[in-house]
Design brief:
The complex is a heterodimer of chains A (294) and B (304).
Chain A: H1 2-41, H2 44-48, H3 62-71, H4 73-104, H5 110-122, H6 129-137, E1 139-141, E2 144-146, H7 153-160, H8 167-179, H9 184-191, H10 196-207, H11 209-225, H12 230-233, H13 240-246, H14 254-293
Antiparallel strand pairs in A: 1-2
Chain B: H1 6-47, E1 49-53, E2 60-64, H2 68-76, H3 80-109, H4 116-130, H5 132-144, H6 150-168, H7 173-192, H8 194-204, H9 209-217, H10 222-251, H11 256-266, H12 271-303
Antiparallel strand pairs in B: 1-2
Helix pairs in contact in B: 1-12, 2-12, 3-8, 3-10, 3-11, 4-8, 6-7, 8-10, 11-12
Classes of the chains: A mainly alpha (294), B mainly alpha (304).
Chain lengths: 294, 304
């Protein structure tokens, strides 16, 4: 009985510890955002008032209105959504293929390919930015130089060949996941007479849902806020992030203008958090599923 | 009937498997052969040449200079070597810290408790914060916005309060410094651990719950369960996170070395030198990683 009590006490203490820790860390993460949010809620006179430090005296929607006007949400939102969704989709599919190929087969040159994946991950795109830009600027197609810059082609091509935004990471992630799958999964399918593609699509992929969702989520979010990749190869596409970066806030004062940009960034982030909420529901569901499957 | 043909079938399956493997990785092979390697070679070639931009949109001309840029980067530039060593030092400290921290947080976020959904969502914020416009806008603030930034303000304030508190307890001064610098480092560690936490968290989903239940029924303690079940299950993701942490810690938009090289390349027109610096630094980093990876692999092998 006393042992049971002790256990109870310990788990209670642990709960308190966990709460304090998580709460404290959440506070650390959110504090800058809350301050930015409050700053964006200030009226212009509050910004110039030295006595107003963090909490606005006069709440005003001025910066938010300007931010919404600047973002031009119907147009740039649609463009951003299209680019993010399709880039993420292509990246997920390509990474699943490549990751599976590297992880589950023995073939000559396997080690070399693995090393290349790590190198692709390691080398920042800035290193080969200019040659790559030139390659798309004068893209040799059947002996004719075609200008592919300012079209969706560079993004499409790079994502398809595994060199898209942060794609090295996703390939490596997929590979690590597939390495951990039990061999019985495929062997059983092969014995049943399933072909390799059939096994991949109907046995392996359904078991890889978590990792595929994770890659999709990361890829979508990073394309959504991206300023380095899309704006270089597809500068005509007015994405939400590029609208903030251009900073045509319509406000003359620097401080107020920065506040409009901050408000805009907060607005951009909201859909991603909503997306994450859905993803997180999926995380919980998959626990029970994998419990059943095994 | 099936058995008699099985020998032949296995051989052909092996061969088919090799062919399938190349088909699976074909996109990457194309990427490496037609994009990655040629462009890396070009960048390397740029580092060996002087680049003159011709006016009027006529492109550029190259003058071969040999290893001049490398010499310049290593011996004439007063910042590069120092920044590079600092950056490597930072990586060596950060990688283990971030890995342990993110594994720890992930295992807590994986537990059932009230408010878990909210907590997970908050911990996802640094992932979004890491790159793109959000990170960019935050790094601007550090440099010129109002002199003090919300983030450093928050940390600075708490750091001061902490050192006051410790002083009131008659803490040793060096010890005090260690504690306060660790405390101020927490925020940067948390913000650099976003992706890693979620990779671990996703990996935990693959551990069947029945396994935990069985372990607890057998009388394992939480500690044993962690080391015997959880840890081996997420160890492949450990490597991913380690490599990502290395990459992330020097490509952050506020990293000194990275900013310095970018500035050389695009503001000061010293593109070849910048390329040489990238190549020197990345080669060094790659070598260190290879040595560490080999050592770890050997340790694991001997451990078994």
């Amino acid at each position: 009985m006393s042992k049971l009590n002790k256990r109870h006490l310990l788990s209670g203490l642990y709960s308190v510890f966990r709460f304090v820790l998580i709460f404290g860390l959440c506070y650390l993460i959110l504090k800058p955002f809350v301050i930015q949010f409050l700053g964006a809620c200030m009226s212009v006179e509050d910004l110039n008032d030295i006595t107003v430090e963090k909490i606005p005296k006069h709440f005003s929607s001025f910066h938010w209105e300007k931010a919404i006007a600047m973002l031009d949400i119907p147009v740039s939102g649609t463009i951003t959504l299209t680019i993010s969704f399709f880039s993420a989709l292509i990246q997920v599919m390509v990474c699943a293929l490549i990751g599976y190929g590297i992880a589950r087969f023995e073939f000559p040159g396997k080690k070399l390919i693995t090393v290349f994946v790590i190198i692709i991950m390691l080398v920042p795109p800035q290193v080969y930015h200019i040659p790559q830009y030139l390659q798309f600027r004068y893209f040799g197609l059947l002996g004719i130089d075609v200008n592919l810059i300012d079209s969706a082609w560079p993004l499409l091509v790079l994502s398809t060949v595994g060199l898209g935004l942060k794609q090295g990471l996703y390939i490596y992630l997929a590979r690590s996941f597939f390495l951990g799958l039990p061999n019985d999964l495929e062997n059983a399918a092969y014995i049943d007479g399933a072909s390799i593609p059939k096994t991949f699509f109907f046995v392996i992929l359904p078991n890889a849902r978590t990792v595929l969702m994770t890659i999709f989520l990361f890829s979508f979010c990073w394309h959504w806020t991206d300023t380095s990749f899309t704006s270089v190869y597809f500068s005509k596409a007015t994405t939400l992030a590029s609208m903030v970066l251009q900073g045509n806030t319509g406000v003359k004062e620097t401080l107020s203008s920065v506040m409009v940009q901050r408000a805009a960034v907060l607005l951009i982030v909201v859909p991603l958090l909503v997306l994450f909420m859905f993803f997180q529901k999926f995380l919980v569901q998959s626990i029970s599923r994998s419990g059943l499957a095994n | 009937m099936r058995l008699s043909g099985s020998g032949k079938k296995i051989i052909s399956l092996e061969r088919r498997k090799i062919r399938a493997a190349y088909l699976f990785i074909l996109p990457l092979i194309i990427g490496i052969a037609f994009f990655f390697v040629p462009n890396m070679v070009k960048s390397f070639w740029f580092s060996l040449n002087e680049i003159n931009i011709l006016g009027g949109g006529n492109g550029y001309s190259l003058t071969f200079k040999g290893i001049v840029s490398y010499h310049k980067a290593l011996f004439e530039d007063s910042h590069f070597v120092r920044y590079a060593v600092e950056s490597l030092g930072k990586i060596i400290v950060r990688v283990p810290t971030i890995l342990i921290f993110s594994l720890f947080i992930a295992s807590i976020l994986n537990q059932k408790f009230r408010g878990r959904i909210v907590a997970r969502t908050v911990f996802f914020v640094p992932v979004i914060l890491a790159t793109g416009i959000v990170g960019l806008l935050n790094s601007w603030d550090l440099s010129y916005y109002m002199g003090s930034d919300a983030m450093s303000d928050a940390i600075g304030g708490s750091q001061f309060a902490l050192s006051e508190f410790l002083a009131s307890l008659d803490f040793n001064e060096t010890l005090m410094e260690v504690v306060t610098s660790a405390a101020s480092g927490i925020s940067s560690i948390v913000n650099a651990s976003g992706l890693q936490i979620f990779i671990f968290l996703a990996a935990f989903q693959e551990v069947p719950e029945a396994l935990f239940e069985a372990a607890y029924v057998e009388g394992c303690t939480g500690w044993e369960v962690f080391w015997k079940i959880t840890f081996p299950m997420v160890s492949p993701q450990l490597a991913v996170n380690a490599v990502y942490t290395v990459v992330d810690s020097f490509t952050q938009s506020n990293d000194t070395l990275f900013t310095y090289i970018e500035e050389l390349a695009f503001s000061q027109n010293q593109y070849s030198t910048a390329m040489a610096m990238y190549i020197i630094y990345l080669t060094g980093l790659g070598l260190i990683m290879a040595v560490v990876a080999t050592a770890l692999a050997r340790m694991i092998k001997n451990g078994r």
